[in-house]
């Protein structure tokens, strides 16, 4: 692993030196024409249209620039990006970045551009808070486009049908909600465990509630999980499985692809709840019969756990951010500044039905469920990144796999910890 990082870094440096010798950089030609590629994860609907329109708008103002947009399925993006970044000649110039250790790894490999001194004043001021999540050792390496606190998204109509008048705030209340939904013949929770990470989200959140803030922070940095709270998180997941609360066939259900995905089950009122990030309203919207916002979609924070030592206001989530390859032309950075202006942040929020990273643009959020999540986010004392993002590709995959194995009856709460620590030890 160490050799690969050094080799990749050397390749990136050699490429940049070669570009500098040519006197242009990126894919700039002698005639001043510049071409660069953007990889994003919006393959359908208004999200894909946003990126296509943004590229067209930029090219209209910069006749010498050609932008190639490539939409890659979210679940495939990390693997393809990891492979592509090993060769700057085939790697994208601008790409979706999840942050955490995943971003740190490509920073260490010299594959991403330091944007600290290249950001517009708009980005620096309107996105000051969000930029902290993309800052490593005091330097900024990505530009956030949205803030996506997670939580539980639910159908208000199905809750009402089951006689549920208030959303749960504690685990005991949540169990009661699950039982009422089951009694009404309604599938309580949609889960797309085929993609692994949605299943692991339950473990992430239980850990956030079970572990004290100090333990949580120290363990996620040291990658040592000796405190019993981490094992209790797995035991909590097992209790949830024992409730038989998930959709039938959840282990082979995808998260976001089509009407039969977990998001599709919520969108079509075939399940009442889904634990997911702040992008969920937009995904659900694209899977409703009329491709419009789900009218009865609501949101509530993940419940507290009896005896848990975690901060009850703490949230978990992430950001949609875009990074720039170390080899990219300056126009690629200019494009990021261009789409980070308030008007484009507002367009982004509407296209993805999400919370924009720019505070000045957040007033455009109209979706009631998103407003509810924004209110919870505003009161949170801390927000942790998704643990698979925080831990990086290899350790994160081991964690997600361990949770799915336990859900499939092939492992235990202790096995999850063993798998994570083993992957971390390999580096």
UniProtKB/TrEMBL annotation:
InterPro entries: Bact_solute-bd_prot1, SBP. The keyword rRNA-binding does not apply. It comes from the Bacteria. The keyword Nucleotide-binding does not apply. Transmembrane segments: none annotated. Keywords: Signal. Residues 1-20 form the signal peptide. This is Extracellular solute-binding protein. It holds the Pfam family SBP_bac_1.
């Amino acid at each position: 692993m160490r050799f690969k990082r050094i080799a990749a870094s050397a390749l990136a440096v050699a490429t940049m030196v070669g570009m500098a010798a040519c006197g242009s950089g990126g894919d700039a030609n002698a005639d001043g024409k510049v071409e660069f590629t953007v990889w994003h994860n919006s393959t359908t609907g208004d999200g894909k249209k946003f990126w296509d329109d943004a590229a067209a708008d930029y090219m209209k103002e910069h006749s010498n620039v050609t932008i190639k947009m490539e939409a890659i399925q979210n679940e495939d993006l990390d693997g393809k990006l990891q492979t592509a970044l090993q060769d700057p000649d085939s790697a994208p110039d601008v790409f979706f970045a999840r942050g955490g250790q995943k971003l740190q790894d490509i920073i260490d490999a010299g594959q991403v551009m330091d944007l600290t001194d290249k950001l517009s004043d708009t980005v620096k001021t309107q996105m000051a808070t969000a930029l902290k999540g993309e800052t490593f050792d005091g330097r900024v390496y990505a530009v956030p486009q949205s803030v996506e606190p997670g939580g539980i998204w639910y159908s208000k109509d199905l809750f009402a049908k089951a006689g549920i008048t208030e959303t749960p705030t504690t685990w005991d209340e949540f169990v009661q909600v699950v039982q009422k939904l089951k009694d009404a013949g309604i599938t309580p929770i949609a889960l797309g465990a085929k993609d692994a990470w949605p299943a692991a989200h339950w473990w992430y959140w239980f850990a956030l509630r079970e572990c004290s803030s100090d333990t949580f922070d120290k363990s996620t940095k040291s990658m040592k999980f000796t405190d019993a709270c981490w094992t209790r998180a797995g035991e909590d997941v097992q209790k949830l499985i024992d409730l038989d609360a998930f959709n039938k066939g959840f282990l082979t259900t995808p998260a976001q692809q089509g009407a039969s995905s977990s998001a599709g089950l919520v969108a079509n009122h075939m399940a009442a709840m889904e634990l997911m990030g702040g992008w969920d309203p937009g995904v659900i919207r694209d899977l409703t019969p009329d491709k419009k916002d789900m009218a009865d979609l609501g949101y509530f924070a993940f419940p507290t756990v009896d005896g848990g030592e975690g901060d009850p206001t703490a949230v978990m989530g992430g950001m949609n951010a875009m990074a720039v390859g170390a080899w990219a032309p300056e126009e690629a950075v200019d494009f990021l500044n261009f789409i980070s202006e308030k008007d484009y942040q507002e367009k982004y929020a509407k296209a993805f039905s999400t919370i924009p990273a720019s505070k000045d643009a957040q007033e455009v959020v109209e979706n009631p469920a998103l407003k509810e999540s924004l209110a919870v986010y505003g009161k949170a004392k801390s927000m942790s990144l998704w643990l698979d993002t925080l831990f990086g590709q290899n350790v994160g995959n081991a964690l997600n796999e361990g949770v799915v194995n336990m859900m499939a009856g092939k492992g235990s709460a202790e096995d999850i910890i063993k798998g994570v620590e083993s992957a971390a030890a390999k580096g």
